[in-house]
Amino acid sequence: MNSYLNESVTILKGIGDETAELLAEMKIVTLHDLLEYFPYRYEDYRLRDLTEVQHDEKVTVEGKVHSEPSLVYYGRKKSKLTVRILVGSYLIKAVFFNQPYLKNKIVMNETITVTGKWDAHRQTISANEAQMGPNTKQNDFEPVYSLKGKLTTKGMRKFISLAFQQYGSYIHEILPDYFLTKYRLLGRQDAVKAMHFPRNQEDVKQARRRFVYEEFLLFQLKMQGLRKFEREHSPGINQNYDMSKLEPFIESLPFPLTNAQKRVVNEILKDMRSPFRMNRLLQGDVGSGKTVVAAIALYSSVTAGFQGALMVPTEILAEQHAESLKRLLEPFAVKCELLTSSVKGKRRKEILQELAAGNVEILIGTHALIQDEVTFKKLGLVITDEQHRFGVEQRKILREKGENPDVLFMTATPIPRTLAITVFGEMDVSIIDEMPAGRKTIETYWAKPEMLERVLAFVEKELAKGHQAYVICPLIEESEKLDVQNAIDVHTALTHYYQGRYKAGLMHGRLSSDEKDAVMKAFSANEVQILVSTTVVEVGVNVPNATMMVIYDAERFGLSQLHQLRGRVGRGSDQSYCVLLANPKSEVGQERMKIMTETNDGFVLSEKDLELRGPGDFFGRKQSGLPEFKVADMVHDYRALETARNDASILIQSEEFWNAPDYRYLRSCLEESGVLTGEKLD
Ligand code: ADP
Ligand code: MG
User: Fold this and answer.
1) Residues with beta carbon inside 6 Å of ligand 1?
2) I need a labelling partner for 458 at 20 to 30 A (CA). Which of 178, 246, 294, 507 fits?
3) What's the CA gap between 364 and 572, in Å, rounded?
4) What is the mean pLDDT of the chain?
5) Strand segments (E) across 367-452
């Protein structure tokens, strides 16, 4: 863009090769980079009420010297100076290390201003700055940069100051006036200035607001530009489904669809009918009724003369889905088949032949669906359940088994809206945010491990009513490092405890799929009343007679995972319960347990999880793929994110955006990122 700002930082006085090298390590090469290297925090000298200051937080206080300072020397040249200060009606201590000269400056009963780290337990400030008299820096607000090597804050401030004085006028606006006025945003030049040289907190706030919006808008334009490109360059298929067949099918369901289900069905059908390829994420909490939505979508594809595929992560789930779909669709003469690695020999061959011939219309299965030998005659719709369990590659292989089939991803892991619209910005998102009527909420309790006896008695009470229970443990076997309960031990203990009254089954990932099947069947048939399991039961399993769940070491699970697990109960008409056995040490851990007992809403939990763990952890480090922003924070600035998203979607569709001069800078940002040529597509 602008040539001056693309000059090397060495153009500035005082930046030699050595400094330039250090700056380069911080990814600062040009003046532009330097001017946009923003402070990560500001030194804040405002006075604050000590009762509101957190432990370890930095703070400035003003008070009266309340004791003669006492000075102690230790080691070589080391000293500690302590003085009592009365701040309002609050008596605190201030300690200064290695500043013995202060002893003579600090005067009894005089006003003093001290800045340092607040130790809330000791009611003490570890001070690094003191000044006799009232706080004169009240309004100072000094930038602090994260730095490498020999670079100093002072030096950095000087470089940036020089750069801004000499070249600041070359910083040009990239946002159209329309947005600046609408949201009262600082101009770009003013915003850069306010980031580095704020007069006060308000300056920083306004500058941040501008950059948050700018970053989000650019990001959203890229995502949506990408989506637009993909839509226009990946022709899909028109699936002209037969409404006269769909309607009776929907009426045949044993229940009316919820409004949310109706809405998402419409969104999906609209995509399927359109000439573009559907690329849609369907989110719905556990039990919100995604299966029937999938069934409707699959059936509509069949009525349009296509085949459909449903891929799920586990065999158990595949079997359950196959069963439900067969039950729903076979009365309508739709041929559904199950394909997993357990389907072998002649049977397998038959299914594959019938599939290739187009006689099997809906295929349900695990990874088995993406094997080479699986060929469809005319694949129109691909659905994956629990999409985050599959890699991009696997989803792509399945998609390529047809010619531009429509694609629907389903997930019961409620992804916070904020993440959904950023991470999945290139997908359309449908949300089922309503539970079928009459669903009882699961009562959740948090119990300390020492209450185990009482918990087991509680479980027994439920068993006595003829109900069943899940007991979940984090790991299969004892590990020396992790002090966790293991499923095998717990199974042994519970078998013993309920001996002669109830039977306990054991389920974990090391069992063969035949063994897993046998256990699951026994539990389904109520031959086993208690199922001790690792998290393999997490997704999808449906045993409505189970009303009780106990989760050992619950603090080891994320909130979303706990919520998923809990969703195994509460599937029938009886009241269900979930007990979290946990002894979290940290405050965050305790808060997480508390939240579980307070809400049954997966979206609320996921937002909370995101807040407590941060976006990186939320998906696990590997899967991150999350965009990095310089200023913006997806969690805290989510309102701005939504605004930017709406603005971007309007822009992308407008003629003006692609032509008007006012938008040229935004357009050039898209060009630079390769979105317009589709370079960034997989
Ligand atoms: P999930 O979204 O977790 O996959 P399911 O599709 O398994 O949820 O549905 C959970 C249960 O709710 C099933 O027993 C299903 O039959 C039932 N269900 C689905 N939709 C409705 C509805 N609109 N009214 C009543 N029950 C419904
Ligand atoms: Mg499901």
Assistant:
1) 255, 257-258, 261, 284, 286-292, 412, 436
2) 507
3) 25
4) 87
5) 379-385, 406-411, 428-432, 443-447
